[in-house]
Amino acid sequence: MMDWTDNHFRTLARIISKYAWLYTEMVVAETIVHQKDNSDRFLAFPAEQHPIVLQIGGSNVDNLSKATELATAYSYDEINLNCGCPSGRVAGHGCFGARLMLDPEFVGDAMSAIAASCSVPVSVKCRIGVDDHDSYEELCKFVDTIVSKSPTRHFIIHSRKALLNGISPAANRRIPPLKYEYYFGLLRDFPEVQFTLNGGVNFIDQVNVAMGQGAHGVMVGRAAYNNPWSTLGYVDSAVYGVKSDSLSRRQVLEKYQIYADSVLEKDTPHRPSVRQLVKPLLNMFHSEPGNGLWKREADAALRHCKTVKSFLEETLDALPDSVLDSQLSGDPPKWDGNFDNMETLLPPKYTAGTKDEFKLHACLAMST
Ligand SMILES: Cc1cc2nc3c(=O)[nH]c(=O)nc-3n(C[C@H](O)[C@H](O)[C@H](O)COP(=O)(O)O)c2cc1C
């Protein structure tokens, strides 16, 4: 997630969960290509972050391919193409993000080029449609075309469509309704392809319910950022079935502080500020007693602290020891929803090759 899942947040996430797959923010292919002498800034990550997926964005096949080649040196575990971002800023760069869904042939060619430039699996993250191009058939045609033109066998499905009418990216993650039935339709109609469910998953229990109903994987976005400890903290035990280290928040912060201050000690260009390094920590005490006071103290401390160690020393007294030292135990909180009505909502079965071509938007020309 842009500006959120940077190296620092991912480091925190990895301290909390050893097994969750981590995704980078979208990195624009042109940035990687044009800044190739400075590529560490955009592509480097600590080895502990594996398994990690690089998400790239763009609409120029040569640049997507070159960017992938340059990223090879960093040993990402998967390369993902963004076909879901509705931002006008990104869309204005050309046929980019969610707009690419209107041009499945192009995405198929792009994925083929990306796959040829690396030796790891490749994947696509997309919406279930764009504007009026929101039928299940069109979504299937998109998947079908990419699968037939490239080795892509993994799609992450943000289960709401994108509206390219100028509403904000935040509204685009809230206003179009979630249609999980499209996701479950894809599971039924493309048994050879892996689909990860995304959108509106706020509980780890919900992940397990989805997996129980056949989901191959679930991507959690905002909930992991907004409440990292009690979302990511359950992943290893409840999803992967591995006994986790069960760190207290104080222990998580101690580990993160060692990382953060080591970054500050390095004399590198674009060295982050203490504020940037503290940002991922700000939701660690979501809904806990003392959180409000701690946030106010954090605000004041960030005006003068030169290290994350001093920041923590100055602020953690605002939180009760019971909050700092307790560990997650037992099962994650129950999700009170279900996917039980999916059977009745499932769209008609897709049969490859029998569907009419749908009209592509004008951006088709821009992408070739
Ligand atoms: C601040 C922010 C930045 C995001 N940046 C990206 C991005 O760079 N690439 C991407 O594929 N999705 C991005 N997303 C969308 C999320 O990955 C996800 O698809 C969306 O939030 C729905 O999932 P959720 O309900 O679990 O948050 C972003 C979301 C937010 C809130």
TrEMBL record:
<feature type="binding site">
    <location>
        <begin position="221"/>
        <end position="222"/>
    </location>
    <ligand>
        <name>FMN</name>
    </ligand>
</feature>
<keyword id="KW-0285">Flavoprotein</keyword>
<feature type="binding site">
    <location>
        <position position="55"/>
    </location>
    <ligand>
        <name>FMN</name>
    </ligand>
</feature>
<comment type="similarity">
    <text>Belongs to the dus family.</text>
</comment>
<dbReference type="GO" id="GO:0000049">
    <property type="term" value="F:tRNA binding"/>
</dbReference>
<keyword id="KW-0694">RNA-binding</keyword>
<dbReference type="GO" id="GO:0017150">
    <property type="term" value="F:tRNA dihydrouridine synthase activity"/>
</dbReference>
<protein>
    <recommendedName>
        <fullName>tRNA-dihydrouridine synthase</fullName>
        <ecNumber>1.3.1.-</ecNumber>
    </recommendedName>
</protein>
<dbReference type="InterPro" id="IPR013785">
    <property type="entry name" value="Aldolase_TIM"/>
</dbReference>
<feature type="binding site">
    <location>
        <position position="125"/>
    </location>
    <ligand>
        <name>FMN</name>
    </ligand>
</feature>
<keyword id="KW-0819">tRNA processing</keyword>
<keyword id="KW-0547">Nucleotide-binding</keyword>
<dbReference type="InterPro" id="IPR018517">
    <property type="entry name" value="tRNA_hU_synthase_CS"/>
</dbReference>
<feature type="active site" description="Proton donor">
    <location>
        <position position="85"/>
    </location>
</feature>
<feature type="domain" description="DUS-like FMN-binding">
    <location>
        <begin position="1"/>
        <end position="312"/>
    </location>
</feature>
<dbReference type="InterPro" id="IPR001269">
    <property type="entry name" value="DUS_fam"/>
</dbReference>
<keyword id="KW-0560">Oxidoreductase</keyword>
<keyword id="KW-0521">NADP</keyword>
<feature type="binding site">
    <location>
        <position position="158"/>
    </location>
    <ligand>
        <name>FMN</name>
    </ligand>
</feature>
<keyword id="KW-0820">tRNA-binding</keyword>
<dbReference type="InterPro" id="IPR004653">
    <property type="entry name" value="DusA"/>
</dbReference>
<keyword id="KW-0288">FMN</keyword>
<feature type="binding site">
    <location>
        <begin position="198"/>
        <end position="200"/>
    </location>
    <ligand>
        <name>FMN</name>
    </ligand>
</feature>
<dbReference type="InterPro" id="IPR035587">
    <property type="entry name" value="DUS-like_FMN-bd"/>
</dbReference>
<comment type="function">
    <text>Catalyzes the synthesis of dihydrouridine, a modified base found in the D-loop of most tRNAs.</text>
</comment>
<dbReference type="GO" id="GO:0050660">
    <property type="term" value="F:flavin adenine dinucleotide binding"/>
</dbReference>
<dbReference type="Pfam" id="PF01207">
    <property type="entry name" value="Dus"/>
</dbReference>
